Backbone:
């Protein structure tokens, strides 16, 4: 994703940094805002990542995250849950509140070609006077942690294989669904502009 972003002309003045979202390499109070889309539910510990975002934004600044909600069709939901988790609105809000944000608010969002499939935009503010979270440090590697990591490797590989199989089914279905919906939108636009 970083490589693709680096070639965009409108982003030429940006600095790109590859880092662990749960241990950001930035100083406290560095940013006017933080925006993320489709990432929060992938973090092993979302509250830790949000505390890091709270730490690096300036007092009074907002952190905005956009995340998927559970797909409505049962077949798609069962397949999608093999490779993704779908927090509820209450879970997203709870993560923001537990991380220390104030004025946490949400709104449903969708895209033009699939208005029934909602996602959520969640925003929280770093209130002036909010206690500064301590900088997160990655856990030190230990022998026990390495053994547990190796024990989970076969399960991880299996889950990845199932996820790829599910994605191989879902991706073409979603592309077809999106293409049909975009055609309908174009037809509606043409009818509206050429009565």
Residues:
């Amino acid at each position: 994703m970083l490589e693709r972003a680096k070639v965009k002309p409108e982003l030429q003045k940006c600095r790109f940094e590859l880092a662990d979202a749960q241990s950001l390499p930035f100083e406290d109070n560095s940013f006017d805002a933080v925006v993320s889309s489709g990432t929060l539910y992938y973090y092993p510990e979302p509250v830790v990542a949000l505390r890091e975002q709270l730490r690096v934004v300036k007092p009074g600044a907002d952190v905005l995250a956009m995340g998927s909600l559970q797909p409505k069709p049962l077949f798609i939901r069962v397949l999608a849950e093999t490779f993704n988790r779908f927090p509820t609105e209450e879970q997203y809000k709870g993560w923001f509140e537990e991380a220390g944000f104030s004025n946490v608010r949400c709104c449903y969002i969708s895209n033009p070609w699939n208005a029934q499939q909602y996602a959520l935009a969640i925003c929280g503010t770093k209130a002036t006077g909010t206690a500064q979270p301590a900088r997160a440090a990655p856990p030190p590697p230990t022998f026990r942690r390495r053994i547990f990591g190796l024990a989970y490797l076969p399960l991880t590989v299996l889950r990845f294989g199932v996820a790829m199989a599910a994605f191989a089914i879902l991706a073409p279905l979603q592309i077809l669904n999106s293409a049909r919906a975009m055609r309908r939108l174009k037809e509606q636009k043409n009818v509206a502009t050429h009565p």
